[in-house]
Amino acid sequence: MASATAAPGAPIHVAAGAVTDESGRILIARRPDRAHQGGLWEFPGGKLEPGEAPADGLARELYEELGIRIRGWRPLICIQHDYGDRQVLLDVYRVDAYTGVPTGREGQPLAWVAPEQMDPAKFPAADRPIINALRLPSLYLITGNDSADPEGFAARLGRALDAGIRLVQLRAHGLCDSDYRRLARRVQPACRAAGARLLLNRDPDVVRDLLCDGLHLSSMRLRRLRERPRPANQLVGASCHSAEELHLAGSLGLDYALLSPVEATLSHPGAPALGWSGFAKLVRMAELPVYALGGLGPEQLQQCFAHGGQGVAAIRGLWPS
Fold first, then answer.
1. Alpha-helical segments (H) within 217-314
2. Chain centroid offset of residue 276 CA
3. What global pTM score does this model have?
4. How confident is the model at residue 145 (pLDDT cuts 50, 70, 90)?
5. Residue-level pLDDT at 269
6. What integer is the mean pLDDT of 37-64?
7. Helix boundaries (H) for 67-149
8. Which residues pair with 13 in a beta bridge?
9. What does each C-alpha distance from 317 to 21, 93, 290, 309 come to in angstroms?
């Protein structure tokens, strides 16, 4: 990403690409030692020219830096970050199709790395949420309300896993703590066998000793936090309904947020819906990947991408009948 300056107080607007290969690896480039954040790895791209649209700037920069012409891409995430001496606004795209062979045309070292193998400490701070976005799937299942029937619950979860779900939040508010712990122990092996990550939605102290892949926090628990409740090798996310809650989730170093309601829902019929325009406005100010939640299903996935979302989270839209 080319070094750049901007007017005092104005963010440097950059377009960057997460260029993928057939095995899902991502192309990264090493910044020159003399540059801002020099010596760190980054996602190729650079500063937009005055009046240039981000997608146009991406195409230009990737041709200039790598010698490739992009053919298929979609928005991945937008990140605003303040380094203290400068602010940056990153419009990041996932690039899945291109022509040409990527080459470091400016002498920059290149590497192909799987998202799971990326070390966030070797990237600029503004790039670290991009790594989270690349590691997270586009569909996020929140389990349904039949948790009191363990057999039926396990069968429905199994069908969801067979259909390709790889991120599961165990939501069972109707269960007492001991029954919730029993259900978590039952479903964890099924998620692990399918390669899916299991997130527990409970007081962190109640589930501290259970095997899982992380936690999901209610907005109320989020507001009570003073620090991230789990280490970096586990996912932590939160339910958010406002710009303030999204900012808090980002400042605490959480990995994702659920933003709702995007559309009217049966479970909260009186709650005012954000709509896609309201969702996009809040997501653009966020500092972490954001899933759209509320009256949605897989059929809205492309619409979610177009409005800056990580993907769709759902109960009814993803929980098998």
1. 219-224, 243-251, 275-284, 301-306
2. 18
3. 0.93
4. confident
5. 65
6. 95
7. 128-135
8. 89
9. 30, 26, 18, 17
- CATH fold label, 12-119: Nucleoside Triphosphate Pyrophosphohydrolase (3.90.79)
**Would you say residue 309 has pLDDT above 50?**
yes
273 DSSP 8-state letter: P
Closest to 210 (Cα-Cα) out of 228, 191, 237 = 191
Single-letter amino acid, residue 161? L
**Cβ proximity of 298 and 312 under 8 Å:** yes
pLDDT at 146: 78
Assign residue 34 a region (left: φ > 0; alpha: ψ between -120 and 50; beta: otherwise). alpha
Handedness of CA 40, 43, 44, 47 (dihedral sign): negative
> Which is it for strands 139-142 and 87-99: parallel, antiparallel or unpaired?
unpaired
Boundaries of every domain in the chain: 12-119, 139-314
CB 145 within 8 A of CB 158: no
pLDDT digits (tens, 9 = 90+) for 287-302: 999 999 999 999 999 9
Terminal alpha carbon distance of the chain: 47
Q: Residue 69: which H helix or E strand, with range?
A: strand 69-82
SS (H, E, C) 11-63: CEEEEEEEEECCCCCEEEEECCCCCCCCCCEECCEEECCCCCCHHHHHHHHHH
Domain 139-314 sits in CATH at: 3.20.20.70
